[in-house]
Amino acid sequence: MDNGVAIELRGLTKTFPRGVCALDGVDLDIPRGSLLGLLGPNGSGKSTTVKILCGLIRTFQGEARIEGTRLPDRRCARLLGYMPQQTALYAELSVLENLDFYASINGVRLAAERNRRIDEMLGLLDLSGKKREVVETLSGGMRQRVSLAAALLHRPPILLLDEPTVGLDPELRLEFWAYFKRLAAAGSTIVICTHAFDEVKHCNHLAFLKTGRLVAFGSTEALRAGAGSDDWEAVYLAHVARAGTGGAV
Questions:
Q1: Residue 2: per-residue pLDDT
Q2: Which residues have CB under 8 Å from 109's CB, separation 6+?
Q3: Of 116, 158, 233, 244, which one has the greatest count of Cβ atoms within 10 A?
């Protein structure tokens, strides 16, 4: 495996019961330090790909490797930070209690170190004034911030984020993207599932999925230039048509 590749997929295929094919032979190398947008409509295979990478789906065909280690493999868990589309927080616990729990299960054993990292994340995500509040009393945007903090506490080199900005107001969405860009600039590899065409401009690499197939992959600028358009919906449709998948999006 190339040392510059963080995630490698070869012939990745996943078929669910009743013959539903969620992924169909996906080949993809995700460069280390990239901010990758995994783009496609609902049902295109985005979430299935991320769930395979983070170990929630353990049976599949083909190969998936993280930093050279073939999945499924529990050793990869420490390399990953996962933010699901639906926040996986304990609603009856406070922000602080949730973050302390997630830091602990992700290997931050010393209480002093957990507290230091939690305070750091609370400050970065403007949550310091909310640390004692119970999660179920928070707004949706605040819960998204807590969920992101939980994914980052163990400082993973790879982040898997499933629709992280859905439901956020425009100002908070821009704050999230600014933070993701800083992480990528510092060397983190970030994979963001999205179906929001207006957000792909924030990524430096894109992978277009349609009905479980990879129809295009490359730098954001190269894919835009290759389609000859600044309209990202048109760019996506042009690459879908070129790949010959057809059908309504």
A1: 56
A2: none
A3: 158
Neighbours of 41 (CB within 10 A): 13
Task: Report residue 244: phi and psi, to 5°.
Answer: 80, 20
Q: What percent of the chain has pLDDT over 90?
A: 70
Per-residue pLDDT reduced to its tens digit, 140-160: 888 988 999 999 999 999 999
Alpha carbons 104 and 216: distance in angstroms, whole number:
39
3-state class (DSSP) for residue 138: coil
Q: Is 80 left (phi over 0), alpha (psi -120 to 50) or beta?
A: beta
Q: What is d(CA 79, CA 186) in angstroms, rounded to the nearest whole number?
A: 16
> In sequence order, what E strands does 166-210 have?
189-194, 205-210
Q: What is the pLDDT of residue 249?
A: 35
Looking at CATH, the fold of the domain delimited by 13-67+157-249 is given as Rossmann fold (3.40.50)
Query: pTM value?
Result: 0.89
